[in-house]
Design goal:
Elements (H helix, E strand, L loop, with lengths): L40 E3 L8 E2 L13 E5 L2 E5 L5 E5 L10 E5 L6 E2 L2 H13 L3 E6 L9 H11 L11 H6 L2 H16 L1 H4 L6 E6 L1 H12 L8 E4 L15 E6 L11 H8 L4 E6 L18 H11 L9
Parallel strand pairs: 6-8, 6-9, 9-10, 10-11, 11-12
Antiparallel strand pairs: 1-3, 2-5, 3-4, 4-7, 5-8
Helix pairs in contact: 4-6
């Protein structure tokens, strides 16, 4: 199996201001808060020998260099100007032919590369699913860490309110990220024979902002067309559902400070369109639980997700 950098992750809880958050303010860093390890510490960029550059080019107008930091015992990156895709391939003996594009979250300002990327991909590969972590381009942030921390604090200061945008309006502001997702799907399909993947069984799962990108790819991604999707603690506002919308898995904690009180319009939209949807509302878990081990039942989202995949026969070996 192809492996990305290995780091041990820990963490608990979550804090953030509730409500719909627009593209400009996006989402809080998608990771739990712990008093012991919530400080952002700059680190050297980890080796990524298996990362494949996507052909979407450099983010227009970007000047800040890509930077990495640790926080909550995990690994994050920001100022991503060139998109990459990192494969995590299952052992040939267990490969199912199913693949998933994994989109980490981080408010389109950072990417939670470990908790919502590499760790998810490793777990999928262990189930026989080829997983591909998408490091998509991000909105620029200050180069210096203190300035970046101040900018995040200001974004979420008491009384700071971002404009409430409809899902369609938010999607319209994600052109670079949608282009990255489309390029990722195109690459996986182009090399599906080499990676022993069924081109008709390529899905996408996203976390927080990555869930937003997953939904945007589903409704506005053109030829990307995920075969199935996972929305993990992303926005759940109602939206226009394509007639051929894929099966959708949704997981959210009821105490999520962003989306726990905003209703479940997205789920209702899928049901009204008579498209397959499964929804797990966990009592506790906050925002950004990802693959962090926690005492809450939200930790079980991955097992439920793979059971759901099995129900849709996505964990059975694809026919030749």
């Amino acid at each position: 199996m192809i492996r990305a950098p290995r780091v041990t992750a820990t963490g608990r809880g979550a804090r953030a201001r509730p409500g719909w958050i627009g593209i400009a303010a996006a989402l809080l860093l998608a990771a739990p808060v712990s008093a012991q390890n919530d400080k952002m510490v700059p680190i050297a960029a980890p080796a990524q020998p298996d990362a494949i550059a996507l052909d979407t080019g450099k983010l227009p107008g970007a000047t800040a260099p890509e930077a990495w930091h640790s926080q909550y015992g995990s690994v994050f990156t920001r100022n991503v100007t060139l998109a990459t895709l990192t494969p995590f391939l299952p052992d040939a003996a267990t490969a199912t032919g199913t693949a998933v594009i994994v989109a980490p979250g981080g408010g389109f300002r950072t990417l939670s590369m470990q908790n919502e990327g590499w760790d998810v991909a490793r777990a999928l590969a262990a189930k026989g699913v080829a997983a591909f972590v998408l490091k998509y381009r991000l909105n620029p942030t200050p180069v210096a860490m203190p300035a970046f921390e101040r900018s995040m604090a200001e974004m979420f200061a008491p009384g700071a309110r971002a404009p409430r945008l409809s899902p369609d309006a938010m999607i319209a502001g994600l052109a670079p990220q949608i282009a990255d997702a489309r390029a990722a799907f195109a690459l996986v399909r182009r090399r599906s024979g080499e990676w022993h993947i069924d081109p008709a069984r390529i899905g996408m799962v996203g976390f927080s902002a990555g869930a937003m990108l997953t939904m945007a790819t589903t409704v506005a991604g053109g030829d990307a067309k995920p075969a199935f999707i996972g929305n993990i603690y992303g926005p759940l506002a109602a939206m226009t559902v394509p007639a051929d919308a894929p099966p959708m898995f949704v997981a959210l904690a009821a105490d999520d400070p962003f989306f726990g009180t905003g209703g479940f319009g997205l789920v209702e939209s899928w049901r009204a369109a008579k498209r397959p949807v499964e929804f797990h509302l966990f009592e506790q878990g906050g925002h950004g639980f990802g693959m962090y081990p926690k005492p809450t039942t939200s930790t079980g989202w991955f097992d439920e997700f793979t059971r759901w995949m099995a129900m849709h026969e996505l964990l059975k070996p694809a026919r030749p």
